[in-house]
Amino acid sequence: MRLFTRVTHTILVLVLTMTWPHAFAAQKPAVNADAQVLQDFKARVDKYVELRNKADNNNSAPPIKKTDDPMELRSAQQALAERIGAARTPAKQGEIFTPEIAARFRKLLRPEVNEPGTKATIKDDNPGAIPFKVNGPYPSKEPLSTVPPNVLASLPPLPKDIEYRFVNKHLILRDARANLIIDYIPNVLS
Amino acid sequence: MHSRSHTRFVIALALLVAAIGALAAQDVSLPNQPDSLKFAIIGDSGTGSSSQYKVAEKLIAARAKFPYEFVLMMGDNLYSGSGPKDYKKKFEEPYKVLLDSGLKFYAALGNHDNTDERNYKPFNMGGQRYYTFKPRNGVRIFALDSNYMDQPQLQWLEKELTASGSDWKICFFHHPLYSSGMHGSDIPLRDQLEPLFLKHGVDVVFSGHEHFYERIKPQKGIYYFTSGGAAKLREGDVNKTDLTAKSFDTGYHFMLIELAKDALHFQAISDQGKTVDSGTLARVSDQDKKKRASTGS
């Protein structure tokens, strides 16, 4: 009987020793790694928008406004792009689309861009293999690819005038107000 | 004396231009009622080519007989660049007579347009990619950006459609939801927009993108037109299907529209001044719209 009590006691101690740390671990809040990556993406985009707002409110150049003078439109857009470009120098690919964020985006895009109708729409208006660079202008003579609504719905939402576009097989992040390429993920399309 | 003969010459020239204009406009045959709402449609117009100028001449001439109040632009308003020279050559010069007369143009963005065109005042976009306006009581027009149909735009559209009550609801944007052309029907876009159009009783939809004219058989009670040949032409591109009610792909064209009570009169006119399609569409009753909204067909 005494032996039985000792064995029981030992088993109990063993079980408690094995499960106790897990019991503590379970109390820690679970971390969703994917959500954290997207949170990081949002923070990086917000930081860019803050920078743009500062460049936009700079009194040294004319603001972008409604006008019937195309020259004014062109000058204001170029001036804004130059101010942003100068403030970001040196900007390089991966500053917003870090490897973790890019990997997450590829995962989000995969089911959508492989759908035949979506694939056709992206291909239809895609400018193809054109030269472009981060912090450079989107080539003004080239068409803008259509981004199908289901693709947009699968990606994180963006602030006003920041948009996703496709250039050849790459996903770019474009500032529509400054016509500037902010960053890109290479080869997201097969 | 020299000045007088110069004046005579100018008057004679003006008369000649007016006569040519009247001749070219002779094919305009809408009911042309005094109190109706009249407007014109051009699509994929911004090439700056002689074809654009030729269609523009016909458009100008048509106004002498059919005094349309504004022009809707289906996108690709400026191909291959949007510098000051592009605005001049591809918009301001071909439509100068209309612009000088105070006529308004309302643009939608195409895949060849720079987003910044929204800030160009003569396009009347109010600085927005998508917008709505009410040309008169009982009619509401929605310009959409089909290149980038994101959630904020869809939410905006739903809100505005809801608020538009029982008006005629007319949507225009670049990419056609139904098409028999090279690009074909934009299915992903249709999946998003069609349920909203049905739910809120949209009557008519105009698009461009395909470089020809096509009137689609009514789809779930909604009328669809593709008009993307005001400067570009893809000859023989209509691969007639069950969708096609009427098509024209052997010349450039523009459209005239007249809304009179519950009727929509339309006429598509070629760059030769010939009518390539015309007719009258009856507006679907509110009761039938409710029925189709509940059944989704």
Can you give a write-up of this model?
The complex is a heterodimer of chains A (190) and B (297). Chain A is 53% helix and 9% strand. With 190 residues, chain A is mainly alpha-helical. In chain A, helix 2 crosses helix 3 (70-88). Chain A is globular and about 95 Å long. Chain B is an alpha/beta fold. Chain B has a single domain, classed as Purple Acid Phosphatase, chain A, domain 2, CATH 3.60.21. Chain B contains seven helices and 13 strands. In chain B, the strands form two sheets. Chain B has a seven-stranded mixed beta sheet with strand order 4-5-6-7-9-8-10, covered by helices on one side. A six-stranded mixed beta sheet of chain B has the order 3-2-1-11-12-13, covered by helices on one side. Chain B is globular.
Short description:
The complex is a heterodimer of chains A (190) and B (297). Chain A has helices at residues 2-27, 33-56, 70-88, 99-113, 116-125, 149-154, and strands spanning 162-167, 170-175, 180-185.
Rg of chain B from C-alpha positions? 19 Å
| Major sheet strand order of chain A | 1-2-3
| CATH class division of chain B | Alpha Beta
CATH superfamily of chain B: Metallo-dependent phosphatases
Q: How would you describe this structure in keywords?
A:
heterodimer, A: 190 residues, mainly alpha, 3 strands, 53% helix, globular, B: 297 residues, alpha/beta, Purple Acid Phosphatase, chain A, domain 2, 7-stranded mixed beta sheet, 6-stranded mixed beta sheet, 13 strands
Topology:
The complex is a heterodimer of chains A (190) and B (297).
Chain A: H1 2-27, H2 33-56, H3 70-88, H4 99-113, H5 116-125, H6 149-154, E1 162-167, E2 170-175, E3 180-185
Antiparallel strand pairs in A: 1-2, 2-3
Chain B: H1 2-24, E1 37-42, H2 50-65, E2 70-73, H3 84-92, H4 96-100, E3 104-107, E4 131-136, E5 139-143, H5 151-163, E6 168-172, H6 187-199, E7 204-207, E8 213-219, E9 222-227, E10 244-248, E11 253-260, E12 263-270, E13 275-282, H7 286-295
Parallel strand pairs in B: 1-2, 2-3, 5-6, 6-7, 7-9
Antiparallel strand pairs in B: 1-11, 4-5, 8-9, 8-10, 11-12, 12-13
Helix pairs in contact in B: 1-2, 5-6
